[in-house]
C-alpha cells in the first residue's frame, strides 16, 4: 500500500470510557479504519486532559473513574480520509475531530540495496 506524499492526518480526541455498540469507541474506530483499508491507526493515551466540559481527567492515584483522554491518529490520502469521515461521524456522540495536511516522508520499510 502506498500513501501519497501529500496526505491528511485525521486526529480524533475521545475519552477512554466512550463506547460504541458496547465496545470501547477507540477499538471500534481502529477496527473500522482497518476494515476501510486505511493505511494505519494509532491510539495514544494521555495522562491528563480536559475537553468541552472542562472536567479534568487525570491518572492521579485517588481517582476512581479516570476516563483518560485518548487520541487516535490516522494518516492516508485526502480521498480515503474524506470517505471515512461519515462513518466516523456515525460512531461518535462527543469528542473532537481535526484534520491537517501532512507530508509523508516514509511509510513502511525502506528498500534495502
TrEMBL record:
<dbReference type="Pfam" id="PF02641">
    <property type="entry name" value="DUF190"/>
</dbReference>
<dbReference type="InterPro" id="IPR003793">
    <property type="entry name" value="UPF0166"/>
</dbReference>
<comment type="similarity">
    <text>Belongs to the UPF0166 family.</text>
</comment>
<protein>
    <submittedName>
        <fullName>DUF190 domain-containing protein</fullName>
    </submittedName>
</protein>
<dbReference type="InterPro" id="IPR015867">
    <property type="entry name" value="N-reg_PII/ATP_PRibTrfase_C"/>
</dbReference>
<dbReference type="InterPro" id="IPR011322">
    <property type="entry name" value="N-reg_PII-like_a/b"/>
</dbReference>
Amino acid at each position: 500500500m502506498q500513501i501519497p506524499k501529500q496526505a491528511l492526518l485525521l486526529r480524533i480526541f475521545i475519552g477512554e470510557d466512550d463506547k460504541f455498540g458496547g465496545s470501547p469507541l477507540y477499538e471500534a474506530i481502529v477496527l473500522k479504519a482497518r476494515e476501510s483499508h486505511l493505511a494505519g491507526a494509532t491510539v495514544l493515551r494521555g495522562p491528563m486532559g480536559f475537553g468541552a466540559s472542562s472536567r479534568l481527567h487525570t491518572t492521579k492515584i485517588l481517582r476512581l473513574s479516570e476516563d483518560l483522554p485518548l487520541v487516535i491518529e490516522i494518516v492516508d490520502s485526502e480521498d480515503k480520509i474524506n470517505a471515512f469521515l461519515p462513518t466516523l461521524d456515525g460512531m461518535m456522540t462527543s469528542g473532537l475531530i481535526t484534520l491537517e495536511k501532512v507530508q509523508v516522508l516514509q511509510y513502511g520499510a525502506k528498500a534495502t540495496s
